[in-house]
Amino acid sequence: MKHIVIILLCLLGIRPDMLYAEDTHAQQYQDSILKGSQAMPNTLARLTYLRDMAYRHQYAPYNKAFSTALYEEACAQENVIYENLGAYYLASCYDKRHDPDSLTYWVDKLKGYAPEVGTYDYYLEQKAAISRALASKRQIEKAVYVAKEALEESLKYHSNNGEIASYNSLGCAYGVSSRVDEALEVFLKAYRRFTPQTKVSLRVDILSRIAQVYGNTGRDSLRIPYLQQMDEELQEVVKREPEARKNWSNFEIDCQIKYVLLSMNRGDFHVAQEHIDKAKALLEDHVDPVFWLNVQLVQLQYYARTKEYDKSIALVDEVTPIVLNHYVSTFATLINYKASTQINKGDIDGAIETRRYLIRAQDSLDNAFSTNQLQQMKEIYHIDDLLMEKQKIKDINYKRGFLFLVTLLVLVLIFYLYTRYLSRKIVTAEKITADAAMQAEADNVTKDRLQSEISHDIRTPLNVVVGFAELLTEPKELTAEAKMEYGKMIQENAENLLKYVNSILELSRLESGKTQYMQEECEVIALCRKEIATAIESGNGHVAVRLKTDIESLMISTDKNWFSSLLTSLLVPVESDEDSYNIVIRIKHDREKNLLLFKVVGTPLAKVRFENKTALIRHEINAHFIHAFGGIYKVQADTAEGPWVSFSIQIRE
To answer: Rounded to whole angstroms, how far apart are CA atoms 314 and 306?
Structure first.
């Protein structure tokens, strides 16, 4: 049935007013309405009458004439309320024609009226319509931009109708670009935003599009509630506004067509025929031509599913004259569909004659196709290919056998590839397990070495403290300078020992889980700048820090105090260190992995990694903190650019 789909796509550019241009009766009816309005006094009564006529006739060929009359009369009476309404109806005319330029002109008018009339609904609805017009011309990115801009304004001005219309247009743009899941998400978001004040036309349109997406993706059970609600909305509005019944005919036909497709998917062809009959009963002169042809197309699908080839061929013959006169671009596809149906029926000779007729109709086709396109069509539908069709039918059993073997080979290949994929997954998992075991073993070795070093580093300052304390307690008289020197040595070693022990205890609490990190939202760039300022101030001229990043501002979830402590340990040298440091902090945002990457070059903590056990423990504490938040901590002391520490932070959205 892909030929039918092609016909439907070709019809998206049809102007609804094409079939009505020469309708004499329509012209007489239109003139009588306008003459009646001119006979009325030049007051609000005339405006009200024209408003009612414009509202009841929102279909070609009357919509533009009555909307123009309303707008011009409102301008003459300087009534801004009705000027806004007339401009809205005129914009709707160009919305139906998918004319973005004319639509933009009237949207600009509506934007000027909005502050005066006190509502932005009319302006925002039609601004959203510009997006749909652009999408119909395959200008997808521009359509998405306009829809999002209209949505932003709708939220700003609290316009529910503008919001629904914007979601509708955004979903249409996604749908045209085959982003089906995104389109459905947007339509459902619009559905959830329905309020009692939402216009019926917007509600019905959204319900129709949701049902369409679910139907196209084969999810009939999800389509049914929205289709039923669409039907109920239409019945209610038709019952409430019988004088405007014709405004809803297109939607009613669309609803019946969806019921037909649903019934055929269920195999309930009797119900499908009932809905086809209901759709046909709605096909009056005012219906947009695209819906008239959609009914014929769904009828063809019905005949194809029920294998009623004779009826299908008869229907093609019935609609061909109309298609040839008004939709010449679809004529070749329709006739080719007839030939395909004849082939399915077994009438090869009839199919050959049908395609010969297609070739003979080249003069009519020249109006829609270039010479090159027509030549391509002749090559596609070459008569010699059709004559070979009889022989192809005789070989059908051989082809089926060949296809079966190919299918079997493909399945074997898929099984082989899947087996290889699983094998690689197993090898990868084993490698990860082995690496984890090696890492655990390395961690144990490191801990054992650290415990040995801790024992040694605690005894050394303790021996100094005890030794000098004994010297101070000996009966031998010491000089004041010696006592001061011994006391200073005792104080320094005691303070170093205290810091060392505190660091060990802090690391022990972290590893035992007794210290819990607190997650909070903080602005990381501002926090870094604050710690840089503190480090420069406390460095007494020995520390210079530069921040290199293209990130202006970024919120992360982490423990603010521990993060500040990490930065301080990397930027501030120990008190006894008299060296000068030129530190550079680089920050990058890896959007693919959603990581924030830090690299601190020239940090004193990396320089003394193996010289100072307190620094080594500080690295362990920092690494524990970074690992707790899903990051990696790395230290490199000997590099061309100097000692550095790098770490990453997982950004949780």
So the answer is: 15
Task: Confirm if 56 and 244 have CB atoms less than 8 A apart.
Answer: yes
Cα gap 582→605, rounded to integer Å: 13
Residue 308 gets the label, from left (phi > 0), alpha (psi -120 to 50) or beta, of beta
Instruction: Please give the average per-residue pLDDT across 11-39, as a whole number.
Output: 65
What is the four-CA torsion angle of 191, 194, 200, 205, rounded to 10 degrees?
A: -20
User: How far is the C-alpha of 13 from the C-alpha of 363, rounded, in Å?
Assistant: 23
pLDDT of residue 653: 61
Tens of pLDDT along 257-269?
999 998 888 889 8
Task: Give 242-270 as a 3 state SS string.
Answer: HHHHHHHHHHHHHHHHHHHHHHHHHCCHH
Alpha helices in 539-650 (DSSP H): 560-571, 604-607, 613-628
Which tokens is 405 given? 């073997």
Token pair in block for residue 470: 């004994």
- Quote the tokens at residue 651: 């950004």
Q: Buried (b) or exposed (e) across 137-163, using 16+ Cβ within 10 A?
A: eebbeebbebbeebbebbeebebbbbb
Phi/psi for 285 (5° steps) reads -60, -30
pLDDT value of position 592? 87
The span from the CA of 316 to the CA of 313, in Å, is 5
Q: Which pTM was predicted?
A: 0.53
Q: What are phi and psi of 544, to 5 degrees?
A: -125, 130
Residue 373 CA to residue 518 CA, distance in Å, equals: 69
Instruction: Using DSSP, state whether 596 is helix, strand or coil.
Output: strand
Residue with tokens 């760039």: 525
Residue that has been written with the tokens 């369409």 in this structure? 212
In the block, which residue shows the tokens 């005919």?
Answer: 249
- DSSP category for residue 20: G
